[in-house]
């Protein structure tokens, strides 16, 4: 284990000891009650950190899991709904099409709280169309992007958020500019747009809580390092272990199991995060003066940070003004899925009247 | 060189009387507003009691390309397409030469007298119509002139064929949903044209219409897409998602048209349904699958290209076992094909839609009343079987009006399938497994998101899973699951609408067909019977087939499988499902963009017997 990783583990143990956590939440449930099945992701995968954040927040807020749906597409990231909120219905759909499945489910039962998870391939490559239309409809859900700049599950190809100039062993160098998920969301009129880092529990949890209380779509783009495939210095989304241990992609039969998930301390302004191999990324918090109700300011701030080569984190934009999809559908109070037959079948007289006009 | 025909028509030697047994072909340019005039003609004839069918041959274009509207009158009640056309109305200069050329010998031609036309034929009667002058004299607002110009041929036809003017007026009022102003505007033009014809034309042909009884009483005229939309609304549809495509668009548009009146919750004044126009067909079916999973009666409507895009999700619905309904109003393929021409070319791809070992329930409505009925049937089956149900209509059935039985109020209560609520889950005390075959019919019990019991949750997935919906790569789990799905498919065989069989005890020949071919098959059987060839007929209403289809094939020495596609797709499926009887099955398939004709079927059967 590298020194930095050891330090990180120690820090985390210390902060865990400091925290005085109540045993049960408002529903009288323990944290463990918000768990899912054991994760089968690589040890140290950023996605697992995010799952932990979801469990924490759901527990803390006292979410009734039976009223939550967990939606995902296909990818390592999309497997994670099986690993949290075991008492919630979940749907591991098809690659890139989670938003449409969520749209249907929400229309069918407007009372459900929808938490969706997708990868960057899922969201920005194959699924960019559905992603943007979910924004456009202001679909009431939390959409978490577990962004590692790479296709994890298919073993390490470039995704649409891969950095320009990034190298992957069998893929060569990526010369295409990355899509910025937050900019795409903003351009599509998303009403809640934020970014964070998987290893920043405090910020991720704060944003998740805000997202869960938002009316309409809430997008959180979370940089979530892939310890196994996005492992080059040239990547801004790497933990970097693999550099000295390059393993041919298609012969990959073992994944080093020595990583710990990165977790950072609280910080003000900027923080340089040192990864396992010594590579660094700079996280920069949004200025206090940023006006999150201004889309223009959000575009500017993200763009400026890009030019500085930094990852700007925080809540870029929020608007509670726009009606969400459900309001626009003018649905009756009872969820459509629970309407009794007599509300679903017009009367005999209605048909007779109709037939008289044919 | 083309010349205008301005002289008075030559009187044919002997004009044979023809009452209610001919076809009128109206040739216009697309977008010229002929839909109203043609619709009014058909409705007036229908109300006179005459069996009538209408086929709109329109281009994939918004304005300008040629359109033909063929109205068949059949005193004997045949509703298939007739190959010959006896009365030709020429309103389109671009096609006037060929339109005049195709009139049956002894027929008549009405033509806009400003059109350049080809050399006159000796064997038809010509009637000019001074369309421009009549429109000018009517002194109409400029914007309406072209539109109302089409009423000229309605008026002239009314005179020549003796169509009841009162029925035309009533049809106009109906067309304009009771608004007297536009109805009157159009009727004025009809009257003008009628008066002009009365004064200036000498009828020298034998074609005319006459009121009839015995066929249309108690029936209505409707198109299949409207019927399907209403069927879904009365069938408890709660979510419709769709993406525009010809010839399916009017199905979803009719849901949007009728649902506000029929499905607004009287208690809240708000909707008991959602209609969502999706960004594409992938999203449309994705929404259906999500909604079906969450307990909605969800459907989408599309045509061939859209169904191709839906393939991946079709497999997900099949394998994760989620109720979903897809209406495919078929048009000609492959590829974009001919978007505005009818065919039945998606039978194979619907049955096997998606990769992996997939087979689906497919329904084949034959007429608008059945489209209405299947609106509810499709949801009942989808929820009972927890699977995708495809309903295959086609452009002819979906977009053309047909004489049909009034839509029957669904008497069967909705079948919401096997759904466990919170108490039932509790009572099962941990023994529930989403994909366990408790009843031996291959169908598990599902729960809906939002069920207030922590033990109700399961994880829906398209990946390999065991009985508890948990990811599994074990071979035993995989095979057990597919064997159960096969059992479920066998259950489906017993639940889908059975075939309609008409048996002739003298028959050695069987005919199997489906959907909108029905009218042509019926007529072909009469023709064959007249030649001494008795046939029995099985109209297939659904896949998978059940024992009755096997028995039918077994009962005849030869069975012709009649369908409107090129490769004989239903024939292909039947030979696969009935390998032992495959050599008895003969394909009679045609795909030329037109509905099958009785002639094609009768000649095909007669030629194939030996
Ligand atoms: C239609 C389709 N195409 C391709 C695939 C193969 N595939 C599975 S996961 C994946 C990429 C996953 O990348 P991402 O969404 O970034 O998730 P990650 O694994 O990185 O978390 C691909 C291409 C698929 N499942 N479906
Ligand atoms: S391959 Fe990468 S993204 Fe997938 S589980 Fe492993 S570390 Fe996570
Ligand atoms: Mg990824």
3D structure, described in words:
The complex is a heterodimer of chains A (358) and B (610). With 358 residues, chain A is of the alpha/beta class. Helices cover 32% and strands 18% of the residues of chain A. Chain A has one domain: 3-Layer(aba) Sandwich (Rossmann fold). Chain A contains twelve helices and 13 strands. The longest helix of chain A has 16 residues. Chain A is globular and about 75 Å long. The N terminus of chain A is likely disordered. Chain B is an alpha/beta fold and 610 residues long. In chain B, helix 6 runs antiparallel to helix 7, helix 8 packs across helix 9 and helix 8 crosses helix 14. In chain B, the strands form five sheets. Chain B has a seven-stranded mixed sheet, with helices on both faces. In chain B, strands 3-4-2-5-6-7 form a six-stranded mixed sheet. In chain B, strands 18-20-19-22-23 form a five-stranded mixed sheet, with helices on both faces. Chains A and B meet through strand 2, helix 4, helix 6, helix 11 and helix 12 of A and strand 9, helix 8, helix 10, helix 12 and strand 17 of B. Strand 2 of chain A pairs parallel with strand 17 of chain B. The site of iron/sulfur cluster (SF4) has 12 residues of chain A, from loops.
